[in-house]
Design goal:
heterodimer, A: mainly beta, four-stranded antiparallel β-sheet, 0% helix, B: 1 helix, globular
Chain lengths: 113, 116
């Protein structure tokens, strides 16, 4: 079984500042990791995913994440945030052959003008 | 077409009403899912359909009744709901079941349900 822990429930950050949203996972098998974004009253949109290969993954809207197996982490980063990045961010994990994504509890990113 | 379309976007229903939520995708995906999301919580899996057959029911109360009439359409029939069932109901699809690792999910925008 897999699980995900998002260490921060809320992250306030000033506009144009960098941000890191933290995600740690646990699994006894190979994992596949995802970050989704949810804007208010919207569904979830895939930002990026790690399946294999390069540990630095680039996604949409200028986000990137780094898979670190030794630290069992998959932190999301953006060098300069915009007001429009204000949203809830979910880290999710699945295993090979699984039908289900297991979500973390989410991190609310609030960008302050 | 790379979207999952859910209707209606908002629904208010009484505890004695019967209503249905609709989800449609034209990406050729053969696995479809219903999730329930309470405020400030992550989505929780309710049902999974694979090739139009119900594969997973996560112990959901019988007042929620899913239906998959064809490979593009997924319904969720609601009857005798309780106020605590108020939530955002999300539909998702993936190319096939058990290959979520490769493809992830595509989510719809959800139906905001309020039970009064």
């Amino acid at each position: 079984a897999q699980s995900v822990t998002q260490l921060d429930s809320q992250v306030p950050v000033f506009e144009e500042a960098p941000v890191e949203l933290r995600c740690n996972y646990s699994s006894s098998v190979s994992v596949y990791l995802f970050w989704y974004v949810q804007y208010p009253n919207q569904g979830l949109q895939l930002l990026l995913k790690y399946l294999s290969g390069s540990t630095l993954v680039k996604g949409i809207n200028g986000f990137e994440a780094e898979f670190n197996k030794s630290q069992t982490s998959f932190h999301l980063r953006k060098p300069s945030v915009h007001i429009s990045d204000t949203a809830e961010y979910f880290c999710a994990v699945t295993g090979a052959g699984s039908y289900q994504l297991t979500f973390g509890k989410g991190t609310k990113l609030s960008v302050i003008p | 077409d790379t979207e999952v379309t859910q209707t209606p976007k908002h629904l208010v229903m009484g505890m004695t009403n019967k209503k249905s939520l609709k989800c449609e995708q034209h990406m050729g995906h053969r696995a479809m899912y219903w999730y329930k999301q309470k405020a400030k919580k992550p989505p929780e899996l309710m049902f999974v359909y694979s090739y139009e057959k119900l594969s997973i029911n996560e112990s959901v109360p019988s007042r929620f009744s899913p239906e998959c009439p064809n490979s593009s359409l997924l319904n969720l029939h609601l009857h005798a709901l309780q106020p605590e069932d108020s939530a955002l109901y999300l539909c998702a699809s993936s190319q096939v079941l058990n290959r979520v690792a490769n493809y992830g999910y595509t989510f719809g925008s959800g139906t905001r349900l309020t039970v009064v």
